Each structure stands twice: as structure tokens, then as C-alpha cells.
Amino acid sequence: MKIAVLVSIGRHPVSGAARYSRNDAAALTMALSIAKERRASLDVLHAGDPSNPALQEYLALGASRVEVLDVEGDAIAALAARLQGYDLVVTGTRAEGAFDSGMLPYRLADALGIALVGSAVDVSVKEAGVEVRQFMPKGLRRRVQAALPALVAVHPMANAAPRYAYARLREGTVVPVVTRAPADAENLQWTVKPATAKPVRLAAAEKRSGHARMLSATTTESRGGSVVIEGSSVEKAQVILAYLREHQLVDY
């Protein structure tokens, strides 16, 4: 069995200094446990700058070797070419930058043609495939199964406790690999530049009185809304658009 872990460069929330990503560190810890239990081979991959010193921190977290694909811009094509033949790919839900979209697991699973299981808090490999306990809102959890090969995106609140050991950092190695990924015609049509405007969160205006808001802080009550399970994606999108129009969050 072959397992791959994708890691990214994290960012300290106060100083902004580069460090390991806590989400990816949890993914690495879970993958190390699975590799030890199943006696599988484990590769740790990063797409980006191989000279970043933050990559060495993954060595201290248990990776014996970090392979860095030296690519610029979109790394989906390079990662998809490198990950051919792996049974399980584990990664964090998203990187820790201010404007990261969290779309890499979805795009990579689509490029590889394998199943994706997101928001994982527990991961185990069975004979039938991979079994994942997923994080859901309001403290709910659910178990899902997927056949291998599969890609698992680990939730930041995963049941994993990374252990940092400086001796392992000195023993491991960071290996840069030059890749020649095929050009993506769609990506060539895009222009990439730093984001300037911060995203604005859409929130409906609060119309209740102060007394009602204080009561809601101490009691559990229904805030309205609707749960749409049946129907096509177009019908579900229409429900969301109707809500945005009702609360004047969009003007079209």
C-alpha cells in the first residue's frame, strides 16, 4: 500500500512568520499511524519553494523525507502526475493563508479520478477501503466509507496530536525535485496577482430587539430558515438566491 501526504507552508496568526501548517501536521500524524498499522510506504510531498525553512519542521513531526516539487503557480498538474499509483492521499482541508480557497483537494481528486472524503476527524483503512468520521456542524459526526484509491482532506479539529522532536529534524532531508508538468491551456488564460480586497462576509441584518437577542443567548430556539435536501442543484441554488434577495444581500 502506498500513502502520500501533501503539506503546505503555514503562517503564524500573530507574527505572520512561515511555519508548518497545523492542519497538514494533523494529516501527517494520522497518515503515519495508518502507515505503521498497515506497514505501508509513506511519502510526504510539497509543491512550491524548496528553500523554505518551514518545510524542515515536518521532519521534526515524523516525516523522514519531504519531496518538494519545484513548480510555480498552479501545481495541480504536477501533483496529479506525481501521485499516480497511490492508494491513499491525505492532506489538510486548506492552507493557512488569508485568501486560500480550499479547492486543491477537490481539483486534485478530479484530476486523479478518485473519490474525495472531506472534513475528516478520524481515518482508518479497512479491507473494503477507507473509513472516515466526518466533522459536521453543531457537534454532529458521521461515518462514511470510500473505496481505494481515495483522497482524504483532514479537518483542523481532527483527532490527532502531532509530536515535535528536534532530533528527527536533524535526521530527515528535504529533497527538491524539478518537474516538467504539461501546460494547462485553461490556466494559461488566467493572470495571477496578489489579492488586494478582503472578502466580505454576507450576513443578514438583525431585526430582533435587544431583549430577544439576550434571550437567544441563554435559550435554544429556532432561527427560521429551511433545509433543502431533495431537488436538483439548480433548485437548491434558487433557494439560496431567494434568501440573498430577501435580505438584500445581492442586488440582482
UniProtKB/TrEMBL annotation:
Which superkingdom heads the taxonomic lineage of this protein's source?
Bacteria
Recorded hits in SUPFAM superfamilies, A to Z, give: Adenine nucleotide alpha hydrolases-like
- What this protein is called in its record is Electron transfer flavoprotein alpha/beta-subunit
Q: Does the entry feature the keyword Metal-binding, yes or no?
A: no
State the UniProt keywords alphabetically: Electron transport, Transport
Check the record and name the InterPro entries matching this protein. ETF_a/b_N (IPR014730), Rossmann-like_a/b/a_fold (IPR014729)
Tell me which residues make up the Electron transfer flavoprotein alpha/beta-subunit N-terminal domain: 9-189
